[in-house]
Each structure stands twice: as C-alpha cells, then as structure tokens.
Amino acid sequence: MSMECVTPNANTSVARTITTIIVVFFAMMILACSGVETPNSTSTGKKWYEGGTLHRAKISEWRNASYENRIATCSDFVMTMRGNGVVPADLPVDEYKPYAVDLERGISKVASGGNADNQTVAGIAAMIRVLSEKN
After folding, report:
1. What is the pTM of this model?
2. Any idea where the domains of the chain sit in the sequence?
C-alpha cells in the first residue's frame, strides 16, 4: 500500500484567502449596518433608506421582499462601503442612492436564478463589493 503526500495547491490558498476576506467583510457589514443614515422618500412615506431588514436574510427571502426593503437594505451596505475605492466617502447623502440602486440590481440578478437561495444577502453584497474594487 502506497501513501501519497498531499500538499495544498495555490488554488486552495487563494480560495481560503477570498473566503476569509468575504467572511471578515460580511461581519463588518453586519456590525456597521445599525443606524446608518441617508435621504429621499418611497411610496410608503419612509425615506428611501429607511426600513431595510434584509441584512441577515437569505437570498430566497430577498427575492420575495419589497423593492423598498431591498433598496433600504442596500443603502445600509453602501454606507459601510464608503471610501473603499468603489463608493466615494465624501458625497452628499442624496448622491449615494445610485450606488444602492446598482447594488440592489446586482443582488437581485444573483437572486433571480434561484441557485443562490441559501447564500446570505450580506455575503452576496460583499462579493459584489470585492468584485467591484478598482485594482
């Protein structure tokens, strides 16, 4: 019986690094999402950034949520991303809405296929953020 020595390859290292980055960013987003502020109104009378409840939700829940809830959740994520090379840090609050709309579209596109139903919304948002970074 022969025993082979198995050593981790570069792909395993890269995968672990990416996973670690995503997990750390996910944790930071959850911690930072309480009490973030921004402006404008929706059809419910709330400001466009108020009332997001999907920070810890699964993608299957995202798909069934209202647009107002999705965009408000994205506003919280965007506010935690300010100054990272993807979202400028010094914009007037109203000018962050396009970033939230883009993020909502990206998450909704992932959600539309049904293949990511067990993934978290924050995890998908973090992946979109990482993939959007300027190199």
Report:
1. 0.67
2. 10-132
